[in-house]
Amino acid sequence: MHRLPFAIGVTARAQRAGSGLFLNALSRTLHSTSFATVTVEAISSSHPAEVKNLVQGEWKVSSGWNWLLDPLNGSPFIKVADVQEAEIEPFVHSLCRCPKYGLHNPLRAQDRYLLYGDVSAKAARMLAQPQVSEFFARLIQRVSPKSYNQALGEVNVTQKFLENFSGDQVRFLARSFAVPGNHLGQQSHGYRWPYGPVAIITPFNFPLEIPVLQLMGALYMGNKPIIKVDSKVSIVMEQMLRLLHDCGLPREDVDFINSDGKTMNKLLREAKPQMTLFTGSSRVAENLAVDLKGRIKLEDAGYDWKILGPDVQEVDYVAWVCDQDAYACSGQKCSAQSILFIHENWASSELLSKMQLLAGRRKLQDLTIGPVLTVTTESMLEHIQKLLKIPGSELLFGGEELENHSIPKIYGALKPTAVFVPLAEILKPDNFELVTKEIFGPFQEVLGKSVNGTTYAGIRARTTGAPQNHWFGPAGDPRGAGIGTPEAIKLVWSCHREIIHDIGPLPQNWEIPPPS
To answer: What residues does the Aldehyde dehydrogenase domain cover (predicted)?
Structure first.
């Protein structure tokens, strides 16, 4: 079953206002966010927000501005200082200034482990304040429209991560070990060592959670990162960096750049960071792996399967889980349910009809369905038509453009959709590639519980609702990255360095031995 966006039309008032969806409950909160340079409810074509770059501790603009369209009404509402290829030298120089032993390591500037424990503690306390969490949840909604609960959940996960790595937890990440040697005075020591200059590239769908978790992991281990977030949503990370500066993050420790992919690729090839973390498209990931000569960790896109075996139980709950996994955030999660394999016992139950009812509850007014930011309406409708040409396939629900919306044509606007495709047809070589093509929107095929290298098993398992304390990332690829846990941070943002101490004393009556 394929999933595509499904929603009820926007009211005329919301259509005129666009950003008016975000006005409620903001006026009394945002004035207390002293770090912020924007007021969420004021962002509009008449009062556009500006996003700057950070290099060598200074916020700077570039020679040109990239205007972003409001994903709800198409009006230009944010201008991003877009760095051009001729302007990358300060960023290259900043990365190259970082020594290969990093800004700190287990043998140098160890006080910085404590510094980052304090920064994390302060940032966690800030994000726990209702005014601040509200600010970021609403800002996320402005640029990557999703329901308030989904946006706030992203803020809460980020806050809990920072809380988890407060105090001594940062230096615990660099825990070393020693092994006795062969004689008195000899001992081998293993250290978690930073790479030094590193780069982070993250996508649009989690504007706060993914960049913050990866950025802080890089900093904890002693690296000097440059971070690029998809320009459509980079305003969220820009504001978060300002919050982190208020919490004690040294301004020179992180560079922040807005640019197109070509410019960023040039920067990476010239600066030669020792490691780059890329989260996003598998196609781009493979190209980067070649350009960067393998110095890369990948958390790339996933085509995610859910399997329902013969035992039919808790149909209401399973239907709700399928709806959430397929259509929350309009399907724009790397863990979103792409294909659902159902046993014939489930097919004869009320599961599919209940899923249709749940999908019908989703409305553009509350952003439980919304714009698809990387796939157009036309592309998704075309994909549906190709699937429906497969013998035995059937449109279960959806398959239509949203009604009464003002979402610009560069984005997608479709109802959550499910397409049935017979399993026997999927296995045919001519159909397999088409059926398993990833559509990063509310679109699924009915025919999984697996997300890349993370598997969710059991009646209550959800591909998009696991606890925040779990590892998320691909398996089976040595380039695979992780996020969110101590193991993930150590894997992605540090390497093993061994130092052998051999300090004597020499054996009594030692003599020069024969040559060997």
So the answer is: 121-446
